[in-house]
Amino acid sequence: MQEPFKHAVLAVDDEEGILKALTRMFRSIDIELSVATSGPEALKLLQDHKYSLIISDQRMPGMTGVEFLHLSRDISPDSIRILLTGYADISATVDAINSGAIRYYINKPWDDELFLSRIKESLELYELTANNKYLLELTKQQNEQLKIFNSTLEARVSSQTREIKMQRDSILKSFMQTIKALSTLIDLRFKDVGSHSQRIAAFSKQVIAGYNLSQKEYQDIVVAAFLHDIGKIGLPDKIVSKQPAEMNKTDLEELRKHPILGQSCIFFIEGFEEIGKIIRHHHENYDGSGYPDGLMENKIPLGSRIIRIADAFDKIAFSKGYPSARSVNDATAHLVQY
Ligand SMILES: [Fe+2]
Ligand SMILES: [Fe+2]
Fold this sequence. Notes:
This protein folds into 2 domains: 8-137, Rossmann fold, CATH 3.40.50; 189-337, Hypothetical protein af1432 (Orthogonal Bundle), CATH 1.10.3210.10. It is built from 13 helices and 5 strands. It has helices at 16-28, 39-48, 65-75, 90-98, 112-188, 196-208, 215-227, 237-240, 249-255, 258-266, 273-280, 302-317, 328-337, and strands at residues 8-12, 32-36, 53-57, 80-85, 104-107. One fe (ii) ion binds at residues 228-229, 258, 282-283, 311.
């Protein structure tokens, strides 16, 4: 909060009597008055003191009141200036008003009441201007502080965002490592498939890189690729121990339950709903001849279609359980035919 104003006033006149009269008048309103008997003497006082109001006589030897008041503006621009004039000084007074050197002029001899009211107005005006300046300065300072606060806020937010991202990346990494470990367990349950689930995931990743998918859609397909055969864990040992070529119709019917079993395995995990759907439909065929629901074309989720192709390719190219494991080129050519 700003301190209450303590005004100081400077009066310049070469006549001692006038200065005494002014001193009495200001004492009556309890305001400190400094006096000088010439313009140069008053200018010296202005160098070292701050005055709210400067009152100057016009007719003084050496330097006129108007000349002094003009010079005083350079030293004390905010002071309010009053010129004391005689009736013969009208032209100088008009010039002083027009050039902005003075706020008021008072004719000598003055009327105390009118003079005091001009003095009061002048001091109020000075106080108002000073308050405005103070508030403007305060606003500037607060804006600066706000700028500094905002800049540190941005830095703090971006540092926290980085930290959150690092934590999220770390959680995602652990999550994917867990999924990968689970897929290794799935593959261990079966003979001669090697890292089947990991190969399907790698293949799927390559295919979906060409699609404009959201991060969630991308991750769902990759997780589903790793876990697509999780339902096979629930199959009886007699099925698991057989190669596909050795299976009879009943065995194959049993084997075909694994997509639905897979979906039920992960049904309870929050956020795995889409992964469950992809797993359920990973043996659907584009022409509707697949299982378990005989879905066709775009009714089959994209992830399921990609895993279906990857699975078929992998079985042809890598699986020892199929009649003729072929080279990658042969397997590709075989798939292209269909
Ligand atoms: Fe499968
Ligand atoms: Fe598979």
